[in-house]
Fold Tripartite tricarboxylate transporter substrate binding protein.
Amino acid sequence: MKRIQAIRFAAGTVSAAMGLAALQPCLAQGAANGYPKEPVRVIVPYAAGGATDIIGRAFAQAIGANLKQTFVIENKGGAGQVIGTDFVARAAPNGNTLLLGTVTHAVNATLVPKLPYDSIKDFSPATILASSPLVCVVPAALGIRSLPDLIKAAKADPHRFSYASSGPGSPGQLAVEAIKHAAGISMVHIPYKGAGQTTADLLSGRVQFFCVSPIPIAGQLKDGSLVPLAVTSADRTPVLPDVPSIRETGLQVDAIDSWYGILAPAGTPPAILDVLYKAAKASLEDEGVKKVLKENGLKPIVNTPQEADAYVREEIVKWRKMLQAANITNN
């Protein structure tokens, strides 16, 4: 069942802080030129409560405040992001329906051979908001406290461990497959539809390993019920400064990051994309956005529509190479 939450703002809502005050005339001009005239739907192609949903709500609130308009978060999960993404691809290119896209958008371009849309031609990126590493965790009850310890245990008992992911070809699956290949171990892959059920099964011991954004498991990391073994970025992340990168543990594994961005249907006027980009940039001074970025180790990007388009294209090429090298399909 989809969950819809409207985020409304009074006309007097305070917008970006003084450091980005120069953007305000641009934002006001965008609104004066007619956009957005009506509430904007932001489609999150996942169930509520996950990393994409949390980031989407924080930015939607701030962007809505900057543009003095209602932004509505609508969760349309299913089929590995395809259902929600296809919904946006078919929407009118007027800026009133947007996609909170993720790295999975780039992955699906290769992973899903018969997508109902073209991952490049059917979308006009407005901006890439932020990126973050994944953190690889085990339940505390397992008694394992480091990635080398996990590898040693998996070698001793090849049938003992299984790992969770958000689906075939997801960044979490690729991270674990890279670890398996580099370490020479075996684990059974168990795909899930949402982080909530995954976390519950980790805590109950039904699965033993999970590489995921820190956002949906922040509470379990804080209370110690999940133990972080490594992060997938090239370097350590400020949100988990004591957790080594995978490479620090001795494994030669390429860095894997998740990203989150605003994509509009193809043909959306450049002026609208520019208004969205400038509103997102101003949102970096919003306290709610600052909190989400800081607490979850997110690196802000907020690039221009032209830069965002190049970014998505480069990501599609990168992930195609990774998927083919790992021989991962959605079969």
Remarks:
- The CA atoms of residues 202 and 293 lie 25 Å apart.
- The longest strand covers residues 123-133.
